[in-house]
Each structure stands twice: as C-alpha cells, then as structure tokens.
Design brief:
It holds the Pfam family ERG4_ERG24. InterPro entries: ERG24_DHCR-like, Sterol_reductase_CS. It is found in: Endoplasmic reticulum membrane. Strands 1-2 form a two-stranded antiparallel sheet. A two-stranded antiparallel ribbon has the order 3-4. It has a two-stranded antiparallel sheet with strand order 5-6. The protein has helices spanning 4-10, 37-64, 70-76, 82-88, 94-112, 147-165, 172-175, 177-201, 215-221, 235-241, 244-263, 268-286, 288-291, 295-298, 304-317, 320-327, 334-363, 399-402, 406-420, 431-455, 457-465; strands at residues 128-134, 140-145, 228-229, 233-234, 377-383, 389-395. The protein has one domain (4-465). It has 475 residues and is mostly helical. Helix 11 (244-263) packs parallel to helix 15. The chain is globular, with a radius of gyration of 22 Å. Strand 3 and strand 4 form a beta hairpin. It contains 21 helices and 6 strands. Helix content is 59%, strand content 7%.
C-alpha cells in the first residue's frame, strides 16, 4: 500500500526536470479520470482482500509460529475450521483502544501544536514552515515540517519510561498487537470514509478534486488532492508520516523487549533489524521537507489506499521481520551479520546518494559536479494544456547514468537486508522484499509512461542514453 515505503519508494520522483511542475497539464497529476474494468476489478480485489492478507499474516504468527502454509493445510485437512482460527484470535479490548487513542492523539498534538525547533540547531536539517509543490489547481500549500522533532520526543519518552518511570512495559505493543490491529483498521476506515464525504460536501479546494463516477475507485484512490482541516492539519502528510512511521521504530523496540523477556537476550538479527530500519525511518524524517516533492504528495490523492494503508498495511506488514524474530530468535554468525549489515548500508548509501545527486542537479540547474565532473544531461521540453512550453533537464551521469531508477535499486538492497536477518526457514519475513519489488517495478512503469507522454521524442533520447531501469545489463 503506502507510506514510507511508498515513502521509501516514492522518495524517488522520476521527473528530474528543473521546472517540471508548474505548467504540467492536470491530467499528469494523480489517478485516472476514467476507470476501466481491469482497474475497477483490481480496486475491488484490494478492498476485499488487503485487510484479510494483513490478518492472515499476523494470525499465522500468533497461532502457527509464522508459517503461512500450516493454516491452509490444517483447513483443507479438516484439522481446524475457520471458526477455530477466529475464536483463538484476540478481540478488541478497552486497553488496546485506550492505548491507540492516546497514541494517535499524542501524534496529532506533536504535529499540530508544537512548531519545529530542530531546524534551529541541527545543521543541514530543513524543518519549520515549508512549501509543497504546485497542485493541479495552482495552489502551493504550506506545511509545518516537524516529523523529526515528533520522532525524537516520542522516543525520548519511550526510553525514559523504559529505564526510569516504568509507566508501562516496553512489550506493550507486542502484547496488544492483534487488539491494536482492530483499532488501526477502525481508524483507517474512518479517516478514508471521512475523506470521501469531505470531498463531496466540503472539499478543501474543489478544483483539486477528481470524480470518476465509480464509488469504489474514488473511495480507494481518493478524490481530494490535499484534504485539510484548518490551516495546518494536512491528511496526506500526517498519515503518510505519522502515526505509522513514528511507530515503526517503537514497534521494533517492543519486539526486541519481548525477545529479552522470553529468552533473556536480544539476538544480533533483531539488533540488525532495529538498526537498519531505524536508519530508514530517521532518513525519512530528516528529509521530510524534500518528501513534499515526491509522488505521494505531488501526484496521489488521499483515499483508502493512503488512509487505510498508512494505518494498517505499513505498521503491520513492514515490521514482519521483527515479529518473526520474536517467534524464531536467530543468532547470526559474525560473517553473516557483517554481510547483511554491509548490504543494508551500501543499499542505503546508493539510495540516498542517488537522490542527493538528483536534488543537487535540480537545485543548481546543472551547475554542479557529480562524481567530480560536470553533469551530463539531456535537454527536453514539454507543452502544458494551455499551450505554454516548458523546458527540463534529465540527468544522465552519476548514479542516474547507471540506471533510470537506481535509487530504487538501493532501496531494494536495503529491503533484502531486512529480510535476510530472518534466515530461510519461512517465507513470511520475505513478503517485504517481494512486495517492494512488485511496487517499485510497477512504479517504474507508471512513472515512465507519464514521462513518455510528457516528453515524447526527448524521452526516447533519454532512454537511449540510459537504457536500463534498475539493474544494468538485466532490467
């Protein structure tokens, strides 16, 4: 679904042009104006089965030690029934509801009421009031960028509780994981439904809405481009970054605490998961202002795909490695641990430096050095809906000369490292790399279709100069 990893994946906006936003036609933004039968079928499939997929994964760990095949074998073998599985599933509890309400409320307070102060003393960090990209209606929204601050405050309180106050056990998230799943689902559906109603009755900007006439498609993919309440509460930015991504590292810490409680130690594989995924989360919030110019914010509308996806899909399926390691603690050999760490760090370096090169090239209009040399690029142009002509530059050197989406390649390397910490006994922890691979390949195709329509023959020149999408010589 969405979120950092959409965050992570969407941190790679393919349009590397200098002036690629202001004059683009409205059709180049967001999802479709019309829905074909295939798209509608896919939407209905996801609406029906995505929640069941999440439930199945979490239930498999809770009742079958993270085996994805045992529940199916038991069902077809007559050893168990669906009612048995459901009866063994923890239900919604007042304790979980209280935890979740307090959590979301706390994140709303941090997001809306505490202006950012990190940018005042952290060199290189961009926070505070920042402008987003131009919307289809020509609006430039302003945002209070304070995600890093929210993450720091949240984790400072978490560690203060763990080592000093002892208000709650650090295993609280794991201990209430399935009851919290019901809470997350409720919030995901409530916010998605509210966004749908709001788009019809009181949109933030009517010109930034898209109606297809298909209820299911509009509900899933969203109608409003930037639904807001008041001046600062932006649904898209809040739910993309908070509460799911702030919780990501807390969830992993709770898994580590459960390992300590159950086995008397935290394995090096669990430490690797916490470190590598923690690096990504910190990178996300450090670059939150830059995230305003990515696909999630610049092109996607806000509907169930983002609302439910950020509340449920992201925190429950992106953290499967840590959950698996609670049930199957693995102490890696030193060589394997070092190899996985290096893979994750190299992947992160490729991911970050590729994006940095693009950003540097864009900010300086090509007046910079990449890998010690003047950058190479292709001049291209496009015409907007009103007939105005605009010019862009597509970078063809540095990492962008290796492959057209080489930041995705680094992303995939890091994602694979997360999964390798879990060994090869079960496929469940490898869902992440399978899902991210499908997501990024689809995003490659979707981005390039948009760019091909936008740049025409200039895009053909670009693909001739940089022939591979992800892996040189292969794809």
């Amino acid at each position: 679904m969405a979120g950092p990893q959409e965050g992570k994946s969407s941190e790679a906006r393919k349009h590397k042009g200098i002036s690629n936003g202001a004059g683009a036609s409205q059709g180049q933004w967001g999802r479709a104006w019309e829905v074909d039968c295939f798209s509608l079928a896919a939407v209905i499939f996801l609406l029906l089965f995505a929640p069941l997929i999440v439930y199945y994964f979490i239930m498999s760990c809770d009742q079958h030690d993270c085996s994805l095949t045992e529940p199916v074998i038991d069902l077809f073998g007559g050893n168990t029934y669906l009612s048995d599985i459901w009866d063994k599933t923890p239900s919604l509890s007042w304790k979980a509801a209280t935890i979740y309400i307090l959590w979301v409320t706390f994140q709303v307070i941090l997001y809306t009421l505490i202006p950012d102060f990190c940018h005042k003393f952290l060199p290189g960090y961009v926070g505070g009031i920042q402008e987003g990209a131009v919307t289809p209606a020509g609006i430039v929204n302003k945002y209070e960028i304070n995600g890093l601050q929210a993450w720091i405050i949240t984790h400072a309180l978490w560690f203060a509780n763990s080592y000093y106050f002892h208000w709650f056990t650090p295993t609280i998230i794991f201990d209430n994981w399935i009851p919290l799943l019901w809470c997350a689902n409720i919030l995901g559906y409530v916010v998605s439904t509210f966004a749908m109603i709001k788009a019809h009755l009181f949109p933030t900007n009517a010109k930034d809405c898209k109606f297809t006439g298909s209820y299911f498609y509009d509900y899933m993919m969203g109608i409003e481009f930037n639904p807001r309440i008041g001046k600062w509460f932006d649904f898209k930015l809040f739910f993309n970054g908070r509460p799911g991504i702030v919780a990501w590292t807390l969830i992993n810490l709770s898994y580590a605490a459960k390992q300590q409680e159950l086995y008397g130690q935290v394995t090096n594989s669990m430490i690797l998961v916490n470190v590598l995924q923690g690096i990504y989360v910190l990178d996300f919030f450090w670059n939150e202002a830059w995230y305003l110019k990515t696909i999630d914010i610049c092109h996607d509308h806000f509907g169930w795909y983002l609302g439910w996806g950020d509340c449920v899909w992201l925190p429950y399926l992106y953290t499967l490695q840590g959950l698996y390691l609670v049930y199957h603690p693995i102490q890696l050999s030193t060589a394997n641990a070092v190899g996985i760490l290096l893979l994750g760090l190299v992947g992160y370096y490729v991911f970050r430096m590729t994006n940095h090169q693009k950003d540097l090239f864009r900010r300086t209009d090509g007046n910079c050095k990449i890998w010690g040399k003047k950058p190479e690029y292709i001049e291209c142009s496009y015409t907007s809906a009103n007939g105005s002509k605009y010019y862009s530059k597509l970078l063809t050197s540095g990492f962008w000369g290796v492959a057209r989406h080489f930041n995705y390649t680094g992303d995939l390397m890091g994602s694979l490292a997360y999964c390798l910490t879990c060994g090869f006994e079960h496929i469940l922890p490898y869902f992440y790399i399978i899902y991210i691979t499908i997501l990024l390949v689809h995003r490659c195709i979707r981005d390039e279709h948009r760019c091909s329509s936008k740049y025409g023959k200039d895009w053909k020149r670009y693909t001739a100069a940089v022939p591979y999408r992800l892996i040189p010589g292969i794809f």
